[in-house]
Write the structure tokens for this entry.
Amino acid sequence: DVKVTQSSRYLVKRTGEKVFLECVQDMDHENMFWYRQDPGLGLRLIYFSYDVKMKEKGDIPEGYSVSREKKERFSLILESASTNQTSMYLCASTTPALAANVLTFGAGSRLTVL
Amino acid sequence: AQKVTQAQTEISVVEKEDVTLDCVYETRDTTYYLFWYKQPPSGELVFLIRRNSFDEQNEISGRYSWNFQKSTSSFNFTITASQVVDSAVYFCALSVWSGGGADGLTFGKGTHLIIQP
């Protein structure tokens, strides 16, 4: 089975801290995604990546950056965390090129910024 | 731009009742794919079904069935004889081909389904 592993299920950080959310997939998928999930808003795409060192902005990239140094790892970075970034963050991956491909999701990282 | 609307934010039914989750989508693309995902309390989204825009056949999988109607831009999901284990948040999603690759999925806001024993 494809596995998408998010390193932290729960994090509590303080305003202004730099936060790293790590995501690793083990199926050699080229495409990786970071979504944010909030009650009443569903899932919103933050950033995605087609390949190593490539990144594309999603719908809500402000306040976030990403890093893809290795194919299997896609990191989401909050340079200076703010309380409005308290949320559930979901990483996903898929094989490239087809809109038909199913995304496989990790279990999520619930971030609380105090 | 794509849009997915799930008008029902929460549905509560008693076990064994049938329930239908609505999904309406918007896209100008002629080739697109529709998905349903389930998110149980554990948090991990689980893929349920994928449909392409050229295949309007309804699909049935056990107690689950899906009704795709291009004329009304809808892709509704019905659970027959619901069970407590069906309690979850269900997301409808849409994907189009952008030329450079799939830009992820556009999700609806989700429907929280509660099945009471």
Observations:
- Chain A is about 0% helix and 50% strand.
- Chain A has a mean pLDDT of 91.
- The interface with chain B takes residues 31, 33, 35, 40-45, 48, 50, 56, 58, 88, 90, 92, 94, 96-108 of chain A (CB under 8 Å).
